[in-house]
């Protein structure tokens, strides 16, 4: 402890007011969206990228755990300082520079995704990765988690847009992986190794991101189907029909029922809760018109009913249905475990049927919605953490889900990452040889285990912890889901 105090003293001398120590300040960054509290002795609100190097050199010398943080919107505990030490808050590094000629942008890590999207949009450019948290999550967090989102079905995930990363190794040395070029086949690809490494292999202080041309137009559809098999045939069927949706989102009938009770409105008048798809097409006016023609034909043949939004306002109303699915579930129990499993496109029906069985056998509230265009479905388990018997049923159901996903040749996380929450299942996903290689990489890049310790490899059971009863800034109440 004496050494830690000594290190903190030096840190304050070097960085002055950027080092925060009051109880209130520390509390704010002691947890993320998982709401499990960690501990920390200081948090550094970084003002210049070079300060990251200074902090890491000191942490390396005194072996202080460092947890890097963007907005803290991770749902897995990835940004929680579970082993104490210091939190490196990069949210104030939020400048970016657009290179219009080369169609790329150089971004500091604290840039909020939707801020970037708005600015590049003004130049007719587009940064497609758009997690639902885009209004508050940061580019650094997105790179560290390889964030996905709604438009991945057409445009790909964060990784597909990262050309280069600059940042610092655990020992405080500066590195730059990749360049602002469209191709890079020069040496080991450490850039891609950092992407998705959840802050365990290095700290990103600049990302060079590829941009594309902004689609001229878009059109949004919401459709209800008699059964899951029909709705979930869409990803492969639409592709065979030459339709490339920019968004293809699914909600199961249990989720629709839950949402209707919550907002006290029907999604489709006179239709009892049924599986729903939210579909968006984007592109040039002629592309959209041709593709919507085929899509409408399919919806007329296959859907029970559908609605179309041709302007932003109407589209927003259809979007609310998707957004409120998640909010409505939160009202049902004190705890919601949000899994983000991914399976091959043709195994989604099997997965959803399996969840139906789980719901029946475990008598738990379990809702499924998500990015069916990518096979990436959110399975949400609601339970009361004060009820030990119900908690035990939820944990058992969760374990069964993870085993099923792995047996379907899927993965336990498609976009949120492992953090703390999924560590109990990592050993089932990987064999000893695979895990051994990952640990060897970690110990080569971070031999003292300074960066984000406790994540990915150590087993942590979130259901054994009491969650904080706090409302995070983005947790807001519902609006109406249909035109009034
Ligand atoms: C309502 C809601 C909706 C969401 N929807 C989606 C979704 O659609 N798709 C999706 O993928 N995720 C989603 N998420 C999860 C979350 O927003 C993402 O994981 C996001 O990428 C986290 O960004 P952040 O800035 O909040 O990072 P944080 O939560 O602060 O950190 C996340 C991880 O990144 C590391 N990290 C952060 N910055 C850096 C850096 N500069 N260098 C190195 N490591 C760093 C942290 O150490 C931590 O491991 C959602 C979350 C919420 C609350």
Layout: helices, strands, pairs:
Blueprint: H1 2-15, E1 19-20, H2 23-28, E2 42-45, H3 49-62, E3 66-69, E4 86-89, E5 96-99, E6 104-107, H4 113-121, E7 125-126, H5 139-145, H6 152-155, E8 162-168, E9 174-178, H7 190-194, E10 203-210, E11 212-213, E12 217-224, H8 228-231, H9 234-240, E13 247-251, H10 253-263, E14 276-283, H11 285-302, E15 305-309, H12 312-330, E16 335-342, H13 348-362, E17 365-371, E18 376-383, H14 388-407, H15 423-429, H16 432-445
Parallel strand pairs: 2-4, 3-4
Antiparallel strand pairs: 1-2, 5-6, 6-10, 7-11, 8-9, 8-10, 12-14, 12-15, 13-14, 13-17, 16-18, 17-18
Helix pairs in contact: 1-3, 10-12, 13-14
How would you describe what is shown here?
By secondary structure, this protein is of the alpha+beta class. The chain has four domains: 2-91, Uridine Diphospho-n-acetylenolpyruvylglucosamine Reductase, domain 2; 96-213, Uridine Diphospho-n-acetylenolpyruvylglucosamine Reductase, domain 3; 215-328, Alpha-Beta Plaits (2-Layer Sandwich), CATH 3.30.70; 332-417, Alpha-Beta Plaits, CATH 3.30.70.2740. It has 16 helices and 18 strands. The strands form four sheets. The chain has a seven-stranded antiparallel beta sheet with strand order 15-12-14-13-17-18-16, sandwiched between helices. A five-stranded antiparallel beta sheet has the order 5-6-10-8-9. Helix 1 runs antiparallel to helix 3 (49-62) and helix 13 packs antiparallel against helix 14 (388-407). Flavin-adenine dinucleotide is lined by residues 32-33, 67-75, 78-79, 90, 109, 131-133, 137-138, 140-142, 144-145, 147-149, 198-199, 203-204, 415-416, 452, 474. Flavin-adenine dinucleotide (FAD) is lined by residues 32-33, 67-75, 78-79, 90, 109, 131-133, 137-138, 140-142, 144-145, 147-149, 198-199, 203-204, 415-416, 452, 474.
């Amino acid at each position: 402890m004496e050494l830690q105090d000594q290190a903190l003293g030096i840190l304050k001398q070097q960085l002055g007011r950027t080092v925060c120590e009051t109880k209130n300040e520390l509390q704010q960054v002691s947890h993320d969206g998982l709401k499990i509290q960690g501990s920390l002795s200081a948090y550094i609100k970084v003002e210049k990228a070079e300060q990251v190097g200074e902090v890491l050199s000191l942490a390396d010398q005194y072996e202080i755990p460092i947890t890097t943080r963007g907005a803290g919107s991770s749902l897995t505990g990835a940004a929680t300082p579970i082993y104490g030490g210091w939190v490196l808050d990069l949210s104030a590094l939020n400048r970016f520079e657009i290179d219009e000629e080369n169609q790329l942008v150089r971004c500091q890590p604290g840039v909020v995704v939707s801020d970037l999207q708005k600015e590049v949009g003004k130049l007719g450019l587009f940064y497609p990765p758009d997690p639902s948290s885009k209004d508050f999550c940061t580019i650094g967090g997105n790179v560290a988690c390889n964030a996905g989102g709604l438009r991945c079905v057409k445009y790909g995930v964060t990784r597909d847009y990262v050309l280069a990363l600059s940042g610092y190794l655990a020992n405080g040395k500066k590195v730059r992986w990749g360049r602002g070029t469209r191709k890079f086949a020069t040496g080991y690809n450490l850039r891609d190794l950092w992407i998705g490494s959840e802050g365990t292999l290095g700290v990103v202080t600049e990302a060079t991101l590829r941009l594309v041309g902004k689609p001229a137009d878009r059109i949004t559809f919401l459709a209800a189907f008699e059964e899951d098999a029909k709705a979930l045939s869409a990803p492969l069927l639409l592709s065979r029909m030459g339709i490339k949706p920019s968004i293809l989102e699914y909600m199961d009938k249990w989720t629709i029922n839950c949402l209707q009770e919550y907002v006290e409105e029907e999604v489709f008048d006179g239709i009892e809760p049924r599986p729903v798809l939210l579909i968006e097409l984007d592109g040039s006016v002629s592309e959209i018109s041709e593709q919507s023609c085929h899509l409408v034909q399919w919806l007329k043949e296959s859907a029970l009913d559908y609605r179309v939004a041709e302007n932003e306002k109407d589209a927003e109303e259809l979007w609310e249905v998707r957004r409120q699915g998640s909010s409505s579930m939160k009202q049902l129990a004190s705890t919601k475990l949000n899994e983000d499993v991914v399976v091959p496109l043709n195994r989604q029906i099997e997965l959803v049927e399996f969840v139906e069985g789980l719901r029946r056998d475990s008598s738990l509230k379990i809702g499924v919605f998500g990015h069916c265009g990518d096979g990436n479905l959110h399975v949400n388990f609601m339970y009361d953490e004060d009820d030990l018997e119900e908690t035990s049923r939820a944990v058992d159901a969760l374990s069964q889900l993870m085993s099923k996903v792995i047996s379907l040749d899927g993965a336990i996380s498609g976009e949120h990452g492992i953090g703390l929450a999924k560590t109990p299942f990592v050993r089932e996903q990987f064999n000893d040889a695979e895990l051994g290689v990952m640990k060897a990489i970690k110990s080569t890049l971070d031999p003292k285990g300074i960066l984000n310790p406790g994540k990915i490899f150590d087993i942590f059971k979130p259901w054994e912890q009491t969650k904080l009863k706090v409302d995070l800034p983005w947790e807001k109440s519902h609006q109406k889901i249909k035109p009034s």
